[in-house]
Structure formats: structure tokens, C-alpha cells
Amino acid sequence: MTFNIVFVLTALSSLLYFCRRPQSLYKYLPRREIFQDIQHKRDVKPSKSDRGIKSSPQSTQATTDDNKLDHYRLMYYKLHNLEFYPSVIPNARAELISLFAEGIQKGKLKDGGLLEMSHYDPESVKQFIQKENNRIRQRYEKYIKRREKGGPRELLTTTEEAKTWLIQRAPSKYVDGAWLGHIHRASTPFVLRSITKNVWQVLSEELGDGDLSKNHAEVYRKLMHSIDAHIPDADSREFVSPTLGLNDIGIWKSAIAQLLISLFPHDFLPEILGFNMHFECLTWDTLLAAKELREMNIDASYFLLHISIDNSDSGHTAMATRIVLDYLQHVSKLEGDQAAQSAWRRVQVGYSLSAMFIEKQEDIIPPSQNIYSTELKRIFRAKSTVSDKLHCGSKVRFGGKLLHEWLNPETLSSDAEADRFLRVLSSSKPWVYMEDSSKSRLVKELKWNGKMFGAFTEDELLVLEHWIDACKQSAVEPATYWNFIGGKDPCSRDEFCNLDTRVHYPVISSQRISEDYENTPDSTMITTQTLPRFLTRQPVNLDKFLPIWFAHISLLEGFVSVPFKTCTTMACAIVAILRAQYGFRKETDGVAGMDELQRTRCTGLIEIGIDMMRDAGKPIPQGLRDVISDGPDGRFALDMLNLSMSPARNCDLLLGMACAFTGLHDSLAAEPDGTLPLSGENLGMIRCIAERERAGLEICLREVKRCRDRRVNFSEGVRIAKREIEACFQ
Ligand SMILES: *[C@@H]1O[C@H](CO)[C@@H](O)[C@H](O)[C@H]1NC(C)=O
Ligand SMILES: *[C@@H]1O[C@H](CO)[C@@H](O)[C@H](O)[C@H]1NC(C)=O
Ligand SMILES: [Fe+2]
Ligand SMILES: [Fe+2]
């Protein structure tokens, strides 16, 4: 919603001026002056139309906002360190569903929004996204013209303002990519992997494809340094300290939304895909920031990067749209058109959640319906017929409509439109503070000494006041979400206690490993040259081997779930290792973008595992539960899955295990007469994967080597995994 409060105020006041009652004091003011006033205000700040309304909140409002801010900050911290705060998970899910509900409520207020597309149709979706992009581009062209004619900067005026703007955005920029952080796991149902792998490619690009200097969060961190903003790491306690002064509640909220939506990839996949489709679209702020920061000699690379990488032809916008279409086609093929239509609803929900943060709106939609609304509508209608001839030529958009369009007898004669007007009005601070008419500027202006004094009679004013006082902030009801998608919450709180790592996510267990794997401290360092070797010509016990094969893919997955945690050389090396294990092509200097989506066959370790099962004459597995049993054969596999959920606590142990498995890959690739059912092609794949794994591990081991305690944990990981792998060949 584009909404210019200054302009609305002046325009409405002039409008009401014309429908004033005879005794109005306005008669002493010459008409022209008022128009000059409007003109002036519009010219001074043309750009502000895109920004939210800064209100000076009253004290009670301030306290609730502060509480919320604290709440978001704490949650931000916990979500960055999830393995130490697993108890936040049920709350996180509830919070996410409330956000969905809010996104739906706000999305419904918008004319021409995606929610209006009640029936899924691929062509319309493509056109819609294209249209959204064109709209921004055209608006940008107009902006450029204004600038060429010598117009002022419209987003950031002074260098100081720019710096503050950038610093305040750190909480959300530091989670760039977070909405996809948990996508494409070993536990992802295999049938969905062809979809989630493409989304993971988007994530991989957000993380720089393994190159720290291209990692988006890192680019923003560099930007912070370059403007001398020495803010703490995003995952630290200090970062969420109120004394730091990062206190834009909308930004924290948007950061929380990005972190939350990623957290339940198996439960909310369509929502994630929809969120991604909106999030990857170009935004007005990005376009303007890229240009205006450069003018001020501030490093604009973060924003330039997002203009090029998110482009709608081959970049993230195109990828995101294509992924949604692929997914819905997939659902339709597997489960029928009905299922695809309901999946579409959920895509819409995700999209609306992201959109909610771009199109600035007030926090909560008020029920502007109360016993006074009918009378108030009647009053506005009466005013509108008097002021009918007046079209103040304003370009103000107010809930998607020009002001004079609202106050037009025909518009207001429709009850739905009149309701809409009240709804929009009621959420327009400082005009109207719900439940507090005395704070509301509209009332003040209509009173004695106000600019619009006389436009309303005393009785009419009373109706307005009563109406405002009766406007109650509505809580966002989670049911809004369930009703919209036509389902009900399948998940009760108790269910969080008995989750299965093979099918659910996230499942964090604080226990380390199921039993003592003969722990004798040993700090001898294995290098990538001295990886364990395995006798793969010995007969293999597939019942033992297959579970650990499928589970070992999870070992390093936890390291890349939160963008800020990937701002290290080691984590970037892990991104590169995962790319190899998932079957992505070797990193090049460019970005793969749509190219990666064009590849149909993408052979990673899971796909190789599935091939082995097929070749061994076993039933084709649908997911980890079909491969990993509860019995002794599944024990080590489950341990690996559990450990992988706590990458900080088990860092070196996990790396050690990953090294042992690279040793296995090496051994398999070197032994064409091995006993595993592996085709020559898959052996070749494994060879390539092992090579890239070694290159990445080399980088990780440099760090591990330096510290004795880390070496001990690392060696233990190697030893445990080695013993378990060896036990499969004898
Ligand atoms: C691993 O996770 C499962 C739940 O998925 C749990 O039952 C088991 O106790 C965990 N094992 C360890 C060693 O933590
Ligand atoms: C080694 O592992 C133990 C157990 O998980 C952990 O408590 C310890 O902090 C680790 N040591 C290092 C240096 O990471
Ligand atoms: Fe990004
Ligand atoms: Fe992106």
C-alpha cells in the first residue's frame, strides 16, 4: 500500500474544507493557500510515499512494542543457536503460523495481490510475477528521469541517514538466505529431492557457492566495516542487546520471519517456495539503495549484487517462479489437480508473508466494524456527495486507491468499499489511534483549533470518536491460516516429544552418541593424504551398509542452516563439499542460476544410494525410514543423524566422521572390483565427489589441526566412523 500521510492529511483537510459547514473558520483562510500547502508538501518529499508511517507512539503502545522487540531479539538469538535452545521449536512453529495468518489478513487488503488468484494456473502466475517486476522497473525508470532532471535522492538523503539506514537493516541482511536454510536434507522425502535441490541451489548462491567473498551475509558484514559500524556477530548475545540500538521492530520481525519459515521444511514446503518467489523479486529499496549509495561513495555491492543475481530472466526470480511451477506440476501429477490447488493456497500464504514486509502496512488489521461504523459510513457518504465535484488531483494511494476515489459517492455507496475505507482509515496512524480518539489526529483536526474544524458537526464528531474508541486491535488468529488452506493443525504440542529424525525436522537431541564407542583420547591428526582406506572387495553386508550410506550425507548439513554461521572460510568449504555430495556441478567463477535448473539428472550420494538399492533388488526407498531400521543395523545411522543436528557442539566429531567417509569414497572409486552394486558411471561420480570433498576438508582440517582438544574430538569421529564402515565389509 502506498500511503503518504502528509499528503493525505492535507488533501483530506482541503476536501473537508469544501464540504465545511457555514460556520467553519476556514472561510477566513484563502483557498489558494491551502492548495499551495498541498503542493509544497508533495514536492518536498515525493519519495516518502514508499515508507512506513513513523508515529510517536503513546506510552502503552511503546511498552508493547518494546516487549515485542525483546521477544523478537531473543528469538533471533535462539534461532541462530538452535541446538542449544531446542525448547524454542514449538513456540517457533506457533509464531510462524501467526505470521502466516497475519500475511493472509494483510494480503487480502491488497488490490491486485496474489491472493486474488484463487485458482492456480501456471501462465497467470508467470504473468503476475512478470507484471510485478515490470511495475518496479517502470517506477524506477520514472525515478531515473526525475533524477536526470536534477531531482534529489529519494531514499537516502545524507550520508549519516544512509549509514543509519544500513545499520538498522543488519538484523535482516545478516539472515540473507535464511528462509531456505534447512531445505534439502537427507531426511527430505526422496520424491521431492528434484524440487528441493533446485531451491538449495538458490541457497547455495546466497551463501556464495562456497566462496566467502560472494557470501551475501559476508558482503553485508564487509559493508558494515566499511562504514565503521562495528556491530557484533549476528549469532552473538551482544547483537541482540537493546543497548546496541538496533531497534526497528519491523526489521527484526522480518528477520524472524525469514528464520522461522525455513525451520520446518517438511511441514511447510509450499509456503517456503511461495516465500522464496516473493523474496527473490526485485525491490524498490534495493534499486534505490544501489544507486544512491554509490552517489555517496558508500559501498553498494550488496545491493548491486541483488539486482544482478535476482534478475527475472536467469536469476533468482526466474528460478523461484520456475520452482513453484515445477512443484505444483509435481503435486498435480502425484496427487491430482485438487491437491495442486490446495498446495497453491499454501504457496500464496508464503508469498503473502514475504510481501507483508515490503508493502508497509500497520501491524495488525483492526476490526473497524463496530456499532458505530454504519453511522460513520453514512456521514462519510453525506460528505462525499457534497464534495463530489472536487477532485483534488492528488496522487495519494490509500489502500490501493486514490483519496478522491475513496471519498466518491459511487465508491462509498458500495458497502464493501465503505467498509474497506474504514478499515484502512482505522489503521492509519497518526490519523487514527485505535481505541484512543483523543490521540487521533483526525479528531484533533476536526475540533476547535484544528485545520478541519467545522467539517463535522458535534454529533458527527462524536460518532467518529466513539467509532475510534471502539476499534479494537484484533489478535491474529492462527485459525486464519488453517481456514485459508482448508485444513486443521495436524500437530499437537505433545508431538514434539516423539519425533523421528528420519522423517521429521528439526529433531534435536542433547544426547551425544548412543553408547560409548571406546573412547581413548588420541590427538593424532589424520590428513587428507592419510584418510582411512577400506577393503571394499570383501563381501559387503548391505543391511549394515545401506543405512550408514544414506545417513552419512547428513553429517555436514547442519553447518549451513543459518547464513551468518557460514561467514567463515571453513563453513564455505563445507558449502562446496555439500555441493559435491548433492551432485551439483563444480563451482565456477559465475553463478549457475537457471543453468542448474536445466540439468535434469543430478546425481548425488542419495541418488547413488537409491541406484544401489535398485541394483541389489531391494524395494525403492521413499525416504530414510525405508532404509534405516530401529534395530542394531540402524543404530550408527541414527547417531549420525542426531549428531548432525548439533553442528556447533559436535563440530570436530562430525568433521572426523566426514573424513572417514571420504576415505570410503576414495576406496570405492579406486577399486573397480568392489562388492557394492555400483555402476561404472556411479563409481566415476563418487571419484569426483571424493576429490572435491578432499579439497574442502583440507581447508577445514587446517583449523582443527591447531588445537589439541579439537584434534581429539576429530580423531574420535574418524575412529568411530571407520570402525562402523569396516564392520560392513568382512
Ligand atoms: C536419536 O534420535 C532419536 C529420535 O529420532 C532418539 O530416539 C534417539 O534416542 C536419539 N539417539 C541419541 C543417541 O541421541
Ligand atoms: C569435544 O567434544 C566434547 C563433547 O561433545 C565437547 O564438550 C568439547 O567442547 C569438544 N571440544 C572442542 C575443543 O570442541
Ligand atoms: Fe541475497
Ligand atoms: Fe537472492
TrEMBL record:
Basic and acidic residues: compositionally biased ranges: 40-53
Record's keyword annotation contains Signal: yes
Pfam family, one: Haem_oxygenas_2
Location of the region described as Disordered in the Swiss-Prot/TrEMBL record: 40-65
Classification via InterPro entries: Haem_Oase-like_multi-hlx
Entry keyword set: Signal
The keyword Signal is assigned to this record: yes
Signal peptide: 1-24
Biased composition (Polar residues): 55-64
Full protein name: Uncharacterized protein
Taxonomic source organism: Patellaria atrata CBS 101060
